[in-house]
Design a protein that fits this description.
The protein is of the alpha+beta class and about 150 residues long. It has helices spanning about 1-40, 45-50, 60-70, 100-110, and strands at about 75-80, 90-95, 115-125, 135-145. Pfam families: PilO (PF04350).
Length: about 150
């Protein structure tokens, strides 16, 4: 009688081992597929890190606005990077220059390698007809970033 119990127990162990082996094969195949998929998307991850950096990156953001203003012959009158929120940095920016250059600045914001939303844009002039065509543009922006999980 004990021999039959031993044989039944060993048979059950063999069946359990075969089940575990089959499940491990499935997991290995799934991991192989995941590795292939990761290899396909990994070249784009650097771009994602630029568009949504892992932190606020205040200095880089300020430099981008300064560079963009200079490229479009605009003067930065005032700029504030406010206390950052959970996933974006609020930015208030005041520039002066011509309307076409302000428009180019807006287009430039959309071409930056960082995701920046324009919440509000107010354009005004000190006089109804300015001799040099100088306008003032007040921006309220959101510079997004991907908070670490």
């Amino acid at each position: 009688m004990p021999t039959f119990k031993t044989i039944a127990s060993l048979r059950r162990e063999i069946d359990d081992t075969k089940t575990v082996e089959a499940k491990l094969r499935q997991k290995i195949q799934a991991l192989d597929q995941a590795e292939i998929l990761f290899g396909q998307v990994s070249p784009g991850l650097n771009s994602l890190n630029l568009v949504l950096p892992p932190g606020p990156e205040f200095e880089r953001l300020a430099w981008q606005f300064y560079w963009l203003a200079g490229q479009n012959q605009l003067t930065i009158v005032n700029g504030t990077l406010n206390e950052f929120k959970a996933d974006f940095v609020p930015v208030d920016l005041t520039l002066t220059g011509s309307y076409p250059n302000i428009k180019k600045f807006v287009d430039g914001i959309n071409r930056l390698d960082r995701l920046i939303g324009i919440d509000e844009l107010t354009i005004s002039a000190k006089a109804v007809r300015s001799a040099d065509g100088t306008l003032s543009a007040n921006f309220k922006l959101k510079a997004f970033y991907l908070k670490s999980l």
